TrEMBL record:
Record domain S1 motif: where: 83-163
Protein name: S1 motif domain-containing protein
Residues spanning the membrane: none
Stored InterPro entries: NA-bd_OB-fold (IPR012340), RNase_II/R (IPR001900), RNase_II/R_CS (IPR022966), RNR_Ribonuclease (IPR050180), S1_domain (IPR003029)
SUPFAM superfamilies: Nucleic acid-binding proteins
Gene3D superfamilies, A to Z: Nucleic acid-binding proteins
GO cellular component: cytosol
Keyword entries, A-Z: Hydrolase, Nuclease
Species for this entry: marine sediment metagenome
Pfam families according to UniProt: RNB, S1
A GO term for molecular function: RNA binding
Protein's GO biological process: mRNA catabolic process
Length: 171
């Protein structure tokens, strides 16, 4: 941004930062402005606002692409781990099933209701899945041991099932 917003953490009204100008165009712009200020010249760059906006958008695009690449690599890696068991945490409960984030991999997979067996019902208001007969509850934040049954790196989908020992507890 061309607007000086200061630095909240340092309690400074004026603030700028930069790294090597060879790495990021916004840093090159800051260097050019500082050079003009030090020479006591007019430090205005006519298109600074559009340059700042463009650079911010491109940085967000690059971060998004990097995130997508990392996810794709994780999915490709996991494709070679079919049948393996992982620790996970329930991060959502949807109509499709339990959404479980695999620990250490930061990707989600689905345990479908049909894989749970039993007679579960979804209590939407509490985001809880409850077994009518067993009383077994699945809630957000519950830790589960799951087995990897399918991976699609293109669609970014992971299919999970409860580990063998866990399935016995739910029936």
């Amino acid at each position: 941004s061309e607007e000086n917003m200061g630095h909240y953490g340092l309690a400074k009204k004026e603030y700028t930062h930069f790294t090597s100008p060879i790495r990021r165009y916004p840093d090159l712009a800051v260097h050019r402005i500082l050079k003009k200020v030090l020479r006591q010249e007019r430090a205005k760059i006519p298109a600074l606002s559009s340059i700042a906006l463009h650079c911010s958008q491109e940085e967000r695009n690059a971060e998004g692409a990097e995130k997508e690449l990392m996810e794709w690599r994780i999915y490709r890696f996991l494709k070679g781990k079919l049948g393996d068991e992982f620790e996970g945490i329930i991060v959502d409960i949807t109509k499709a099933g339990l959404v479980v984030e695999l620990e250490n991999y930061f990707v989600d997979g689905i345990v479908s209701y049909s894989d749970l067996g039993g007679d579960y019902y979804f209590k939407r208001s509490e985001k809880t899945l409850i077994g009518r007969r067993t009383g077994r509850k699945y809630e957000l934040g519950d830790r589960l041991k799951v087995a990897l049954v399918s991976v699609d790196p293109i669609l970014r989908r992971i299919g999970l099932t409860l580990s063998s020992e866990r399935k016995e507890e739910t029936r």
